[in-house]
Design brief:
Chain B: It is found in: Cell membrane. The complex is a heterodimer. By secondary structure, chain A is mainly alpha-helical. Chain A has one domain. In chain A, 82% of the residues lie in helices and 0% in strands. Chain A has twelve helices and no strands. By secondary structure, chain B is mainly alpha-helical. Chain B has a domain of 93 residues. A two-stranded antiparallel ribbon of chain B has the order 1-2. A two-stranded antiparallel ribbon of chain B has the order 3-4. Chain B starts with a helix and ends with a helix. Classes of the chains: A mainly alpha, B mainly alpha. Chains A and B meet through helix 3, helix 4, helix 5, helix 8 and helix 9 of A and helix 2, helix 3, helix 14 and helix 15 of B.
């Protein structure tokens, strides 16, 4: 039973970096990928449905840490005190940016919250990198944490870029431009063909870009593995220590009885999110809540 | 203030903020679900608009519920690692179940509900909000179960200097839980009903063009607030039995006593006004413009009562964290320095306090602007015409 729960804990932490890592990475690149407000709106609208389903993985990690490894929970969180505080504040700032950016009018309001999304995402990536490094070096925050922070930030940004290419195959600015081109009638034939190609690509109408979407999914899966690799390596290294700190069998039995029957529903809901909100051009027609 | 006071202040401030938003989330979720059910099976446009408008208010409020909840979850490990060390084998279980079974599902399905308008079949979309509502109350159950364990550590025995599970059934049937959970659910419905009531009265007082919308809403708000106040007051009194048995002298401390006293006062006042003044005249209330300011003024009272009630329950447990077993001082993380706790206290209360103010202003803004300003579930734009193809 303790092995099963350690596997589940690993799945949750790896799932967090693979899935929510994409949202964090995309948030980091928001000003770079969306240079105009329209571009940023499109990016946020595309990633928005994945955010709630992504961040729950970390909430679940923390809950499992408390329930399954109560002897480790206090030690780990307290040992990383400043990093956990940074992580939480960054998380709050990122989420506030997403929830609030469309709640009032005016370009300054939305641009301001977009900056908060970017800032919070960077904070999340850097504090995670530092925290993973500190965990690997025995809960001591050393200068190596800076290198770890930079490395994880790079990995997540890379993952975020692959996520953007998968979600918006035409590119954020590109598709916006073609969207307006199609409405304007006075375009040249060449521009029409170009926009047709990009639009078709996004819609998966042409055989070439359809294969491109498949490649995008494969690339995304690859970067997801990369984003989760540091956490996976750390888990592999600390598994014996975690197993020593597992709660007694009675507690694990209660957790298994209550939680395992719901696991298919939890996994099913996640799959449903990724199937419903995957890359489809039709999504552009729906006014986004975030 | 010493480190312990600061750590307690941090928990009290973030916990109160969290509860302020959670109590409204719990109150509004079932109402939004009912509105959407009426729309799905009845097909009246007013029910669709009600779902979208009150649903958007529910969501703006939800945002702060999430972010304050994150701080709550991690704070146990940051400031109170002695709790997980001593009682984590028992206390950790309800928290783990809450995050995995309740919050994980609630948040995932909430995402499907928010972004799934017009993108999934209507009945599946309706199922999403019902799952969100159900899991929100499952969440409340497990959090209250965890809290009841702190009030009365039933079902656990001490072995090797730590608490272990002896009988998990006793954790779930804790007398400190059985009456408190419906009390909180009642308070939540009262809060949700009052917000709908107050906002509708405001719009009707301003002679809104949306007469049908806010007439229906006002009546719904009064009805739900009536159910809520009966549950809250009834199960509030029912708690005195188990409290007298397990925590005699709970309300002897000035803070707990004051919290209890003022909460009861507000409870009585709300019961009197909602049940014996507003409910009997529910048919005419939407047209009685002179009465609307009174309804509006009542809106903050359930929030105030909720905080006072929480204060009474928690302050009355001092100096114990796990009643009779572990003191708050012993539960504090060993090695917590004034610098650490001061920095995190300022960071969390500063950021969350600011966001809470922004959040309430955004809710007020939407209430002022009315249903036309709700963007949740807005109709999709027509598909773009392929003019270049035609012009070729």
């Amino acid at each position: 039973m303790d092995i099963l729960w350690t596997v589940l804990f690993a799945v949750l932490l790896i799932g967090y970096f693979a899935l929510e890592g994409a949202n964090i990475g995309l948030g980091m690149l928001l000003p770079a990928l969306g240079r105009t407000q329209e571009g940023r709106d499109r990016i946020v609208a595309a990633m928005a449905p994945f955010v709630l389903a992504g961040e729950v993985w970390l909430v679940a990690v923390a809950g499992t840490l408390f329930g399954v490894y109560p002897q480790a929970e206090g030690e780990v969180l307290f040992g990383l005190y400043p990093l956990v505080v940074c992580l939480l504040v960054s998380w709050i700032v990122r989420d506030a940016g997403l929830w609030f950016r469309r709640r009032a009018d005016g370009p300054a309001w939305r641009a301001g919250w977009d900056r908060m999304i970017c800032l919070g995402s960077w904070g999340l990536a850097l504090s995670w990198g530092a925290a993973l490094t500190a965990l690997a070096t025995g809960l001591s925050i050393t200068p190596a944490a800076l290198a770890g922070a930079a490395a994880l930030a790079a990995l997540l940004a890379f993952h975020g870029r692959a996520f953007a290419s998968w979600l918006l195959p035409g590119g954020a600015a590109g598709t916006v431009a073609t969207g307006t081109t199609t409405v304007a009638t006075g375009t040249t034939e060449a521009a029409g063909e170009l926009s047709g190609a990009v639009l078709g690509g996004a819609a998966g109408r042409l055989p070439g870009p359809a294969a491109g979407a498949g490649r995008g999914a494969a690339a995304l899966a690859g970067t997801a593995c990369l984003a989760a690799a540091p956490a996976a390596a750390l888990l592999a290294g600390t598994a014996p220590w975690l197993l020593e700190h597992t709660a007694p069998a009675d507690t694990l039995n209660v957790l298994s009885l209550m939680i395992l029957p719901c696991a298919p529903l939890m996994a099913g809901a996640q799959v449903w999110v990724w199937r419903t909100f995957g890359p489809r051009r039709a999504a552009d027609r729906f006014p986004s809540f975030f | 203030m010493d480190v312990l006071d600061l750590a307690r202040a941090q928990f009290a401030v973030t916990g109160s903020l969290h509860f302020l938003f959670v109590v409204l989330t719990l109150g509004l979720a079932p109402l939004v679900a009912v509105m959407q059910t009426l729309w799905t099976f009845g097909g009246k446009p007013v029910h669709e608009r009600m779902t979208r408008f009150w649903g958007q208010i529910y969501l703006i409020n939800y945002a702060l519920g999430i972010v304050t909840g994150l701080v709550m979850e991690f704070q146990f490990g940051l400031s109170w690692s002695g709790l997980s060390h001593y009682a984590g084998d028992v206390f950790g279980a309800p928290l783990a179940i809450e995050t995995l079974v309740a919050f994980f599902l609630e948040s995932t399905f909430l995402g499907l509900w928010i972004f799934g308008w017009h993108r999934m079949p209507r009945r599946l979309h309706l199922a999403c909000i019902w799952i969100v509502t159900l899991t929100a109350y499952v969440s409340a159950f497990w959090i209250m179960a965890a809290n009841a364990f702190l009030q009365n550590p039933a079902g656990a025995v001490e072995r090797g200097g730590r608490l272990v599970v002896e009988d998990f059934g006793a954790v779930l049937t804790n007398p400190m839980l059985a009456m408190a959970l419906p009390h909180v659910a009642g308070a939540a419905l009262l809060t949700g009903g009052s917000v709908i009531m107050g906002a509708s009265a405001y719009q009707l007082f301003r002679r809104t063009a949306e007469q049908e919308f806010f007439t229906k809403s006002l009546r719904l708000g009064v009805s739900v607030a009536s159910i809520g106040v009966v549950l809250a007051v009834g199960f509030g009194y029912a708690q005195f039995g188990p409290i007298g048995e397990f925590q005699p002298g709970k309300f002897d401390s000035p803070l707990a006593g004051l919290g209890l006293g003022f909460m009861i006062l507000i409870g009585y006042l709300l019961q009197l006004v909602v049940l014996f003044v507003l409910l009997p005249v529910i048919r005419w209330l939407p047209r009685w413009r002179w009465a609307h300011p009174i309804v509006m003024l009542m809106t903050p009272l359930p929030f105030l009562a909720a905080i006072l009630g929480w204060l009474a329950r928690e302050a009355g447990r001092q100096p114990w964290l796990v009643y009779g077993r572990l003191t708050v001082a012993d539960a504090m993380s060993p090695g917590l320095t004034p610098a650490m706790i001061t920095t995190s206290l300022v960071a969390f209360t500063g950021v969350l306090g600011l966001l809470a103010v922004v959040d309430y202003l955004l809710i007020a803004r939407l209430v002022r602007r009315g249903p036309a300003a709700a963007t949740l579930g807005a109709a999709p734009l027509p598909p773009p015409e392929r003019t270049p193809a035609l012009s070729l």
